[in-house]
Each structure stands twice: as structure tokens, then as C-alpha cells.
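Per reviewer request, we include the raw input and output of the structure prediction for the construct analysed in the revised manuscript.
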Amino acid sequence: MKNIKPLFAAAFIFLVNVAYAQTAAPAATPTVTLTPSTAIAPAAENPYGLAAVWGQGDWVAKTTLLLLIIMSLASWYVLISKLLAQKRLQTMAKDAEVAFSKAANLQQGADAMAKDSPYRFIVDASLDAVQQHPSVAGQVDLNTWAAQSIERSVATVQSNSQQGLAVLATVGSTAPFVGLFGTVWGIYNALVKIGASGQASIDKVAGPVGEALIMTAIGLAVAVPAVLGYNWLVRRNKVGMDGVRAFGSNLHTNLLVQADKSRAK
């Protein structure tokens, strides 16, 4: 009996330790194996984007979209071409100033400028008017005759500088309404689909409503650059024409001085 009691005590202690180890051990983490069916799928392509508008839209929606694209291309063409023309006008103004500072008379100064320069056009027209003055000398004095010729030439240059600005003004004022028409047409299509299906589920109206919102955004994207470009070009035109008018005023004085020198000889 004395030998059996220690064996029971040792067995009891061993069982207690085993039970404690099982309760204290962390739970096993299950392993998950990804099969081809559970793999993460790539993001689906947006079914309501611009491509969907063109692919699913009717002829009215496509015509509206084409019209907005044409208006945008026209406004950007005018904006870029007018900026280049205004930059060229600034260069010609500097060339005219240099040419007349080195010339002995007005004709030499005009010959030193480019043939398509508006400053040369004003000088040539003024010199022609001076040569024609004797035929009207009895009715109009040389001062008034030369001033009228310069004013007409400056008005012609100003008219040429404003060409194309009407396109920007038209696009800026009408593009939002064209986009709004596309919006109204898209909402109409959405209502038609709701009425035909008898239920207002998201899959029935998401396409037409998305088309409507895209048309609105495109209309604004076309109109905003046209309006900003128009205001910018008008401001730059005003600055350029101020220089042309100043040149015309100086030319008027030089014409009268040259005419007096010619009569003195």
C-alpha cells in the first residue's frame, strides 16, 4: 500500500498537467485555400461611361454629343489661332518701331516692314491718301483727309483682329443649353424605360441617367473654356489696338511734317 499511494499521486499530477495544457493552448487557425472560384476577380469596366453613352445612345444622343465635340474643337482652334495672331501683332509693333527709327522717310519705313504687317497697311493707305489729296484739296484740308484715312485703316485692322471671337461667344453661350438638351433627353429615356418595365429598378434607369449627367458635364466643359478664352482675347485685343491707335496718331503727325517739308522744297 505504501508503494501504490505515490503512484496514484504521480498519475493524478500528470493528468492535471495534461488537462491544463489543453485548455491553455491557443486554438488552431484554420487554413483557407483559394480555389479558382474564390479568387479575387478584377474590377469590372464601368458600364455607364462615355463609351457606353455612345454605344447605347440613340441618334439624338449621338448627334448632341457630336455637336458638343465640334463646338469644342472650333473654340480651341479659334483660341489658339488668335493667341498666335496677337503674339505676331506684338512682334510687328516692335518691328515697325525699329523700322521707322532708322528710316529717312515714311516710305522707307514702310518698305522695311513685312508685307502682311497691319502697320505697313496703315502707312501705305495713308501715303496713298496724301497722293490723292490734290483732287479733293478744295473741299477737305490735308489734316482732315489724312486723319480720316488713318481712322479707316485702324478700323480695318481692328475688324480683322476680332475675327473668330464670335465663335467663342456663340459656343460659350449655347454649349450649356446643348448639354442641357442631352440631359433632358437622357431623363426622358429613363422615364420611358421605367414605364415599359413597370418597375423603377436601378438597372433600368442607371444608364439613361448616367448619360444625362455626362451630357451636362460635357456641355459645361465646352462652355467654360470658350467664355474664359473670349474674355482673355478681348482684353489682349484691346491692349494691341491701343498700340495700333498710338501708331496711327504718330503717323498722322509725321505725315503732316513730311507734307510741309515737301511743300517747302
